[in-house]
Amino acid sequence: MYLDPAKNTIEHAQVWEDADILLEALNITPEDECLSIASAGDNALAMLAKGPAKVIAIDRNPAQIACLEIRVAAFKCLDHTGLLELIGSIPSTRRHELYATLQGELSLPTRVFWNTHPEWIAQGIGHAGRFENYLRIFRQYILPLIQIPQNIMGLLEYRDNVSDRHAFYHSRWNNWAWRLFFRLFFSRPILEVWSGTAKTQYYHGDVADRILSRATHAMTELDPSSNPYLQWILLGEHQTALPYYLRPENFNTIRENLSRLEWHCTSLEEFLAHYESKRLSKFNLSDIFESMTAESTSALLRLIAVKAREGALLAYWNTLAPRSAPGMLEDRLLPLSEQAYSLHLKDKAFFYDRFVLEQVAYAT
């Protein structure tokens, strides 16, 4: 893996896709061989908690593979508290010491990459991505113009009753400044600045209004006190909630199953083109189709259907680019629309407009 610290950029230092609904959708068993888009590694590691035979993580960006690799080393070398400190989930004054204990587990390119950026270690590696920096700007400079600290902490308080969450949101949170600045900060032009037009060129509809609607759902219909994604956006750390792979009850199982994880720095198309086996049965495809044309999406889904085991499950997210198996693949990929819709209603990561679940058809 060629990794140039000056050129390779971490796009996402965390995975902003809810592993809880992903794992419920895929229903991973010990017989499954899984393929996951690596991104920062969070959900590939979460899949290990279910004890599959194998998890193969794929990413074409070597900086994202470096994010996965440092997490694997942290699971091997640190205790649970040390892992949370290194990520940035909890405060720490010893992140460089923690990093020193694990860097011997890193490949040389990955070690050089992280050594070149000591500031990322100091602040917590979960802050190191372009997207996380975008959220930091929102948290530090926009949010104080919108809300007082008491409202921010009040939003994250536990309220068992949905009507109480609606009452707080509409009386204390949903002011004109929130709606105005949210629409400005998450508008298409601003999103293009951090992600590039390649990520947004296929978006349909009003970007900010759709995300605002999903954010409102997460703050009212769902419980903000158990939402790690919302907590990081508002506080820059995790307080009362952790993503699946960081929860203490999953730490030892993930550590014990690390030998079942492998990773490759390549595109999914390239990997599948040379993959001869038909053992892959569970796919976490993240949101990879967002920056692809409908034709390219169809070609990749067809390739997956050819390479996958019969009955295999594919899970992925749409932000605002509607992508799923086209009609020409209806005999190969069956949409599990009702299950996907039900899971999306529970999705704590509110950036996505749609959750897609499809199954490779059995031969008839």
Structure in words:
The chain has 364 residues and is of the alpha/beta class. It has a domain at 130-235. Helix content is 49%, strand content 10%. The chain contains 19 helices and seven strands. Strands 3-2-1-4-5-7-6 form a seven-stranded mixed beta sheet, with helices on both faces. The longest helix has 17 residues, at 130-146.
Give descriptors for this structure.
364 residues; alpha/beta; seven-stranded mixed β-sheet
Itemize the secondary structure elements and their pairings.
Elements: H1 19-26, E1 33-37, H2 42-48, E2 54-59, H3 62-77, H4 80-87, H5 95-102, H6 108-115, H7 118-123, H8 130-146, H9 149-155, H10 162-173, H11 176-185, H12 188-195, H13 197-200, H14 207-220, H15 228-235, H16 248-256, E3 261-265, H17 268-273, E4 280-284, H18 294-307, E5 313-318, E6 333-335, H19 337-344, E7 354-360
Parallel strand pairs: 1-2, 1-4, 2-3, 4-5
Antiparallel strand pairs: 5-7, 6-7
Helix pairs in contact: 3-5, 3-6, 8-11, 9-10, 11-14
Order of helices and strands: HEHEHHHHHHHHHHHHHHEHEHEEHE
What is the general shape? globular
The neighbouring-strand order within the major sheet is 3-2-1-4-5-7-6
Main sheet properties: 7 strands, mixed
N- and C-termini, Cα separation: 42 Å
Category by helix and strand content: alpha/beta
Supply Rg. 20 Å
Low-confidence stretches: none
What's the number of extended β-strand segments?
7
Mean pLDDT: 92
What proportion strand?
5-15%
Helical element count? 19
Helix content range:
40-55%
Question: What would a concise description of this structure say?
Answer:
The protein is an alpha/beta fold and 364 residues long. It is built from 19 helices and seven strands.
